[in-house]
Specification:
This protein starts with 15 loop residues before the first helix and ends in a 5-residue tail after the last helix. 48% of the residues are buried. The strands form two sheets. It has a five-stranded parallel sheet with strand order 7-6-5-8-9, with helices on both faces. Strands 2-1-3-4 form a four-stranded parallel sheet, sandwiched between helices. The protein has 331 residues and is α/β, with parallel strands linked by helices. β3, α4 and β4 form a beta-alpha-beta unit. It contains 13 helices and nine strands. It has two domains: 135 residues, Aspartate/ornithine carbamoyltransferase (Rossmann fold, 3-Layer(aba) Sandwich); 177 residues, Aspartate/ornithine carbamoyltransferase (Rossmann fold). It binds phosphoric acid mono(formamide)ester and norvaline. Phosphoric acid mono(formamide)ester (CP) binds next to α2.
């Protein structure tokens, strides 16, 4: 398997074998990190990390993973670059390619990271766009595989706004790797028809399935993994909170949902999560709408916290695998 020079923009661009290869590589890096093995084979290289939206996990994962591999990092924060304001994506890509060996981009439309990749001479990695969050998918699949020992045939249900980055990306990765994916939400929050058709063709080859349902009991019955995400994503206007709370409250992950899924089920969340009101936004929204928790109850979050934080840790190991493979640290 040789992924040297490849961009990492969406998992649509990768075969199931390539995705599994990245998971195996991440597991290997995780083991090496635990044993204290030096993996700094990319000494002397440098990567640029562009964040037009904020981040804790993704930024820290890119930075720690790059440092473990021996690389230097430059972080461009949401206000700290000229990109898209005073300088075009194409010019930015050309400039950064003269200085760096790889570029991470987190921001708005997928077309921006694609344009960056088109004009850059070095690998470009998608650290989240409105449409996709592919590095998160590797961490999620690694976490599920670590817990269950396999992926094929597992049943994952996503509850919430399934037409945005997390719902889209989970549908893609499940379809590629042969998991059974269910989006459980009001119909207008289902992924779009075009992407659904593409994923159905992947599922046809992998043995996976794709199901959409508005019914929580049916959708979560017997699930191996119950997954949710914030109801309002970064970059969306505050004005949408009201309709989201109205539409998605029936799809909150509660202990009843977990019991319906079954004893072996786990809960995952890409984080950050509104499982209580101990955050500035959580407090504001909580007071405005009379809520104490949103997409997941604090009881579910605390009961399944081990998996959620394994998932967060796995961001670093999987991002390390993506950088190492595409920069040619491993063959
Ligand atoms: N899950 C995730 O992408 O987290 P951050 O927004 O903190 O990077
Ligand atoms: N849907 C969320 C994911 C955060 C990791 C967002 O885009 O804000």
């Amino acid at each position: 398997m040789n992924l040297k020079g490849r961009d990492f923009l969406t998992l649509k661009d990768f075969t199931p074998e390539e995705i599994v290869y990245l998971l195996d590589l991440a597991a290997d890096y995780k083991e090496k990190k635990k044993q204290g093995v030096d993996v700094s084979t990319l000494r002397g290289r440098n990567v640029a990390l562009i964040f037009e939206k904020t981040s804790t996990r993704t930024r820290c994962s890119f930075e720690t993973a790059a440092h473990d591999l021996g690389m230097g990092t430059t972080y461009l924060d949401p206000s700290g670059s000229q990109i898209g304001k005073k300088e075009s994506i194409a010019d930015t890509a050309n400039v950064l390619s003269r200085m760096f060996d790889g570029i991470e981009y987190r921001g708005f439309g997928q077309e921006i990271v694609e344009s960056l990749a088109e004009h850059a001479d070095v690998p470009v990695w998608n650290g989240l766009t409105n449409e996709y969050h592919p590095t998160q998918m590797l961490a999620d699949m690694l976490t599920i595989r670590e817990h269950f020992g396999d992926l094929k045939g597992r049943r994952l249900v996503y509850m919430g706004d399934a037409r945005y980055n997390m719902g889209n990306s989970l549908m893609i990765v499940c379809a590629k790797l042969g998991l059974h994916f269910t989006a459980c939400a009001p119909a207008r929050y289902f992924p779009n028809e075009e992407l659904t058709q593409i994923c159905k063709s992947y599922a046809g080859e992998s043995g996976g399935t794709i199901t959409f349902t508005e019914n929580v009991e049916e959708g979560t019955k017997g699930a191996d993994v119950v997954y949710t995400d914030v109801w309002v994503s970064m970059g969306e206007p505050d004005a949408v909170w009201e309709e989201r709370i109205r539409d998605l409250s029936p799809y909150k992950v509660t202990m009843d949902v977990m019991r319906n899924a079954g004893e072996k089920a786990i809960f995952l969340h890409c984080l950050p999560a509104f499982h209580d009101c101990n955050t500035k936004i959580g407090k504001e929204i909580g007071e405005r709408f009379g809520l104490t928790e949103m997409e997941v109850t604090d009881e579910v979050f605390q009961t399944y916290r081990k998996f959620v934080f394994d998932e967060a840790e796995n961001r670093m190991h999987t991002i390390k695998a993506v950088m190492a493979a595409t920069l040619g640290a491993v063959q």
